[in-house]
Amino acid sequence: MTAHIPEKPALEGLEQKWDAAWAEQGTYLFDRARAAETGRGGVFSVDTPPPTASGSLHIGHVFSFTHTDLKVRFERMRGKSVFYPMGWDDNGLPTERRVQNYYGVRCDPTLPYDESFVPPFEGGDNKSSRAADQVPISRRNFIELCEKLTIEDEKQFESLFRQLGLSVDWTQTYRTISDETIRTSQLAFLRNLERGEAYQALAPTLWDIDFRSAIAQAELEDREQQASYHRIAFHKTDGSGDIHIETTRPELLPACVALVANPDDERYQPYFGKTVRTPLFDVEVPVLPHHLAQPDKGSGIAMICTFGDVTDIIWWRELDLPNRTILGHDGRIVADAPDVIVADAARAAYAELAGKTVFSAKKRIVELLQESGELLEVSKPFSHPVKFFEKGDRPLEIVSTRQWYLRNGARDEELRSRLISLGQEMSWHPDFMRVRYENWTNGLTGDWLVSRQRFFGVPIPIWYGLDENGERDYERVITPDAAQLPIDPTTDVPSGYTAEQRGVPGGFDAERDIFDTWATSSLTPQLAGGWQRDDELWQLVAPFDLRPQGQDIIRTWLFSTMLRSALEDGRAPWSDAAISGFIVDPDRKKMSKSKGNVVTPADILAQHGTDAVRYWAASSRLGSDAAFDPQNPTQVKIGRRLAIKVLNAAKFVLSFPVPDGAAVTHDLDAAMLATLDRVIVDATRAFEAYDHARALEITEAFFWTFCDDYLELVKERAYDRSDAGQASAALALRLALSSLLRLLAPVLAFAAEEAWSWFEEGSVHTASWPEASGIAGDPDVLTAASAALIGIRRAKTEAKASQKTPVSVLSLRADAATIERLRRAEGDLKAVGRITELELLDGAGDLVVERVELAPQEV
User: Fold this and answer.
1) Are 803 and 793 in contact (CB under 8 A)?
2) Where is this motif: 'KMSKS' region (predicted)?
3) For a pLDDT cut of 90, what percent of the chain falls above it?
4) Which residue in 12, 713, 725, 791 has its CB near the most CB atoms, within 10 A?
């Protein structure tokens, strides 16, 4: 069985060899028939993160996906039928941006479809480019390009994941833009709508002016921006003087609806209930109290504009103020001034701003205020946090739009409490990540905005009835039957209507918005598990055992998936959540594309080998950040050394034949196996607790003791077939190798499989997880023998002699218990040290070499 062991084992080529073999043999396929026999308890199911197919994978993907694979491989070897699918998150803004830049195009829904369209080029750098330089194309042409590019990206992603050795069942894949996914996503939404959990509303909306789309709270991030306070005079209506406010956004003066101060601020209490007139535009606005106004900020009184920031929205809503939005969806000042601006001079001032960007409008209004004498002071620039879309380039604005929302507990105490309770019922690894989930849930300020004004995504399956004037009647929402799904309301026709009634009075109009990508990704358990498509599969895998993911998307992916499951099934979608840390650069800064410090994994894998990279990932615990220096990847190099040692040690062990009827009879062999039993127990507990790093640490420490000490101690006996202890040594070595390969298999997936194939049938990854042998032995015998071996080596080194130099006499002194254990390994110690006479002397204290006499060397 060992005839095919290579002359010189190497890691090179193992990835291609074993990936092909695993695919051919179906090693990682979900055994549905077996799962049906054992029931849900015999299945381990994973809600795998679907990476965004809009660019390249980075080292963070390797890190977190390896963590998942470690647990999956462990559970498979423990006898579970593993359901480990892979999804691709194709739709959404990142994909659209990549397509725009890759092909040099942009979508214009007003254009007709061009069947023969060829994009101007292929291979953009995925960086922002001017829309004016991009060729406008129809929505259908644009979606076709999105489909084409994501499919190509997904092929590359799968290739890299295969190289990484992920034990995914590649027959269980899904795309978030496929017909089946669209059906599932639309069906879930219609059920939300039917239960009153989904609704639409006209409301202030955070808006990205580049993407021309609404943005949800979970997609926000603060970025530091430079600003200056502008001290501006508002005029008291009674003519008694001015009230000074300070603002960073003077360009929004035409949208001012009130001034607000803290109710406890004595400076402004006399003015509450009175009015002032705005500078330049001469509009009368009230002065009102509100507890969110900060007395120590600026002049202590603020102007409320609709809308400058999220606080304006709160004031507007709670104080029941009018809406005077002046910003369009393109981020420019709209042409028509609010109705309340009536004076000729005021309308002329507004005309100076119309059509300008907020930047240009700010510059011009400052000039106008200076000319009118109403700008009193401009502060020195300072830095402050501004809301951005996490994938955007310019600050978000707030415009009023009609959008679809999903209730998420922000305004429903009962739902919020239920979501918190479900989170507490789960196991979190590490446990402190639960707090992040709870903080996000308790900090929600509004329901989940799920509609997007984009193109490549799941269509919202809604039509609207049109009144006699051809206007949408938002109270007449027309929904399809479940059997009709999937649909695209812009091309499909609702039941009871004809295509000729589209867009005409008394007919219907389509909802043109699509779902936010998270509204689909929040259904990954349902997409992968066959919800409302394959009831048998759904019952076998749901609720899932594991949700692995990054800590930064607890607020988006984890929370939204929990919400959908709570609304639909009243339960958590998984029993456990495993949260990986970030990858940071050598300066401990988080790696991100915006910072330019991202490392792509392909070169690292090619240079060092997959097992080395898997070892690096496995060395970090869940929730802990890991530094990665591509110039000096120390942990990767250590992992490569370990993988090579596994191959060489396996070849060496297999060189010792195991006689028929062999039994472990020697004390040192029994001691080694007893020590290994402890390792198996401890490593198993660690894997069960999602502590793969601890399992690796325990196993690796023993492996090096096994190679450096035990193998050296017993190799002479194992070689010598005339020695009565040869069979015991050879069998112990073989038993240990078998267990060690299985213990290391989740980490060193390729090296372990290669070595296993030299003496066992089948795959190590479907072999049973090792169990304690139960062989009676004293682990301290191995400990004492290892210490003695170290002492013997040191004595020869200090005598400037080779380790192969024979020794006439060597004396070891130690306490009585240690001496007694050394006597049980005396023959092996003499053999490895080439010692003629070994004196074992009783004494107090640690083991020491008291005397060493080298044998006379022949000339």
Assistant:
1) yes
2) 590-594
3) 74
4) 713
